[in-house]
Design brief:
The structure is a homodimer. The first copy, chain A, is built from 13 helices and 17 strands. By secondary structure, the first copy, chain A, is of the alpha/beta class.
């Protein structure tokens, strides 16, 4: 028998980045975990199904966090006074080292997963640490949460402290393969491994070569960092003098799109040649505006990426970003684009509300397939939002209510949540 | 008999902008509404007083919001797609017009005051609207809340819609005097009137002349807007060709510091000559970073103001800012300073956590006198913060716990609040 879900409320979603589709007082129908249609009234063939009446609440697609570091959640909001490379050495690497302890990981990841479960996020691409056991523990918890995630055991074999470095490329390779096999063995429904070389400065050419073979053998997606900070970019040029540009250092190992589904976080300083390569290769960009501000990195030219119809979504980038809340990521994306327009390049217009919303839903969701929209056939990731706490009683306009939520809402407004048609709460 | 208050907890405050004073596990003593001292242990002469034990919670001075528009609270988080002048005409003026209705004002201001009461704010300088009755209503509510505030009936007699313009300078004058007399008559303890010409574009020279006489007659403070947006500044130059610069147009009417306590909001584009005049005249600057980003105005050179030892505090500037939460204003101030450093002027270093905290407490508090610190003789504005929700159990360092609150805390973390020694909750 079909698993049919009928939800009543005010429905908003994006078909494209330019405009919102708005269905006031309507019925969203999901069949077997996929969106079927939106109706003004319950159609005769569904009249026997008891629908869930969410009244005047707002129903939107689940959001995708394209870039987040689970082990950094425990220190979010601390140590925001340094730029990227110093920040990594001073705060991040020591914290991530702690995840060699399963006891520590158990405690910290429990908190992380519980908060993520309650947030607006339904899909996430997650960096763990180099530690296989604690990464598997994290994946067990994520699977239990019913969120849909891609999780990477991080690889790093150079330029990292002893406590957070894989001993050699060979050991990294064998541990990572063991990890992948363990994950396959678990047979998770909603949790998958993603290949995660931290970034070029942490990964030797030898390691990258070996990871490429793993990627091909197990048909993995890839996530990493790109062109976030000027010092980082200069360093990559020193480390890989054979590369034409930073992204080219990934592309040499076929970890930069083409037949490999790839997310690159940041892309603040990508030169035209890098942008063109990303476009050509279909690389997904995880735009992390709050992180890029907190680490004084700069602001990515998101308007350029949108104009070129590239694949873009948003990343919270916790802990360089301070919140899991993707509404806030939308707000920061809009705010960052305004300041960039004013201070850096007035030819690139600021993002609109519709564009910001699109990035957090369909834009990032596309990395997972048909995700992040309510068009027919999309997976039924659904958020029901109750804006009573922040609403103004005279405010009727649904687009304005959505805009207000972007600036003011947090997990308190998430009233109900579905991933692939399964209700989490 | 003396009114003695002894609070136990972890105490943090600023004596200056450079460093935090930190007293772990200590006792804050207030006598008759003024800070007496901080002790490591309860001294013998106070041993008979039952102290309030806030345990491991954090105790900081109350925060001052130097710039907020009460009537705009109802539409915070909406209409963020325009620059200042279009934003005023499209969203703000129509909304403020509604406050001619006492019924509307009653409803909207009740919500505003209740939210402000629960926030981290203990002192605020507030713009109301041109309407005397609803402004008095607001002041009644604020007085009842026990917050300490300065509230302005706004003056505007030109370049405003009919529904939000005083008919003539003379009528504005007589209505404003009537308003001031009414306020005096109310004999409020914590609520005072502040002269509030909206900004030069809304106020004719004739009105400004008349307001000056009111200011002198009733010895009022002044609040207004300054150098927020390039189009606004050009307009002021057209309207007041006799002024040397924007601030000079206030100074001509003696509403720019000297013997008149004055707050000017924004100062994003103040030329050197204006900065020098503000410094010379002791004008307070209300730095409103989120507002300046949301309206694509730009970023004020806050480092310059700090280096010159000028008077500076923070403003939420609701509704161009989207939150009353001054922790967020600190975060935005730090973030804005980083982006300004990166994109505009690398000679001006970003703000530190200590500096941001100082601005929200002692920096802005100084407009009210000895307010915003726990030095002896300061008025006892006190916040007790419970960071259980956002804390990480291994985090002991108090400065880090404060930093985390700057980025993550909201009204949920305000556990207890005192203004001038009176407990609000």
């Amino acid at each position: 028998m079909d698993n049919i879900l009928v939800l009543h409320g005010n429905i908003l979603f994006s078909k494209n980045s330019k405009e919102l589709s708005i269905h006031k007082d309507s019925y969203l129908v999901s069949i077997n975990g996929l969106i079927d249609a939106i109706y003004n009234e319950i159609p005769p063939h569904l009249k026997d199904y008891v629908y869930k009446d969410y009244g005047d609440r707002i129903i939107i697609p689940g959001m995708t966090d394209l870039h987040i570091h689970a082990p950094q959640y425990a220190f979010q909001g601390i140590g925001m006074d340094l730029e990227l490379l110093d920040w990594l050495n001073t705060y991040t690497f020591p914290e991530e080292s702690k995840y060699s302890s399963l006891t520590y990981a158990q405690k910290a990841y429990t908190n992380f997963v519980e908060r993520l479960r309650k947030s607006t996020t339904t899909r996430a691409c997650i960096f763990a640490t180099i530690h296989e056991d604690s990464t598997l523990l994290l994946m067990d918890m994520l699977e239990k949460s019913n969120l849909s995630t891609l999780v990477g055991k991080v690889n790093m074999d150079r330029n990292s402290p002893d406590s957070l470095r894989e001993e050699s490329a060979s050991i990294a390779f064998s541990n990572t393969e063991k990890f992948i096999l363990n994950v396959l063995d678990k047979n998770y429904k909603n949790t998958k491994a993603i290949l995660t070389p931290r970034f070029i400065p942490s990964c030797s050419d030898e390691l990258m070569t070996k990871l490429q073979s793993l990627k091909d053998k197990y048909d993995l997606c890839v996530q990493s960092h790109l062109s976030e900070n000027p010092s980082e970019i200069a360093w990559v040029q020193e480390l890989c003098p054979w590369s034409s540009f930073y992204g080219d250092a990934y592309d040499k190992f076929n970890m930069f799109g083409r037949n490999t589904k790839t997310i690159m976080a940041h892309c603040v300083y990508s030169p035209s040649i890098e942008i063109e390569r990303m476009k050509e290769n279909g690389v997904f960009i995880a735009h992390c505006p709050e992180s890029n501000i907190n680490l004084s990195s700069g602001i990515a030219p998101i308007r350029t990426f949108l104009d070129k119809d590239m694949h873009i979504g948003l990343g919270s980038d916790v802990a360089a970003g301070t919140t899991l809340n993707l509404f806030k990521a939308i707000a920061y994306a809009i705010q960052a684009s305004k300041i960039r327009w004013r201070l850096q390049d007035s030819s690139l217009n600021p993002l609109t509300v519709a564009e910001g919303f699109y990035l957090a839903t369909k834009g990032g969701g596309e990395f997972f397939g048909k995700v992040g929209s309510f068009e027919q056939g999309y997976e039924s990731d659904i958020l029901v939002l109750d804006d009573t706490r922040i609403n103004h009683s005279e405010l009727q306009d649904l687009e304005k209510r959505l805009e207000r939520m972007i600036y003011l809402a947090d997990e308190r407004e998430v009233f109900a949540k579905y991933v692939k048609g399964t209700q989490l709460f």
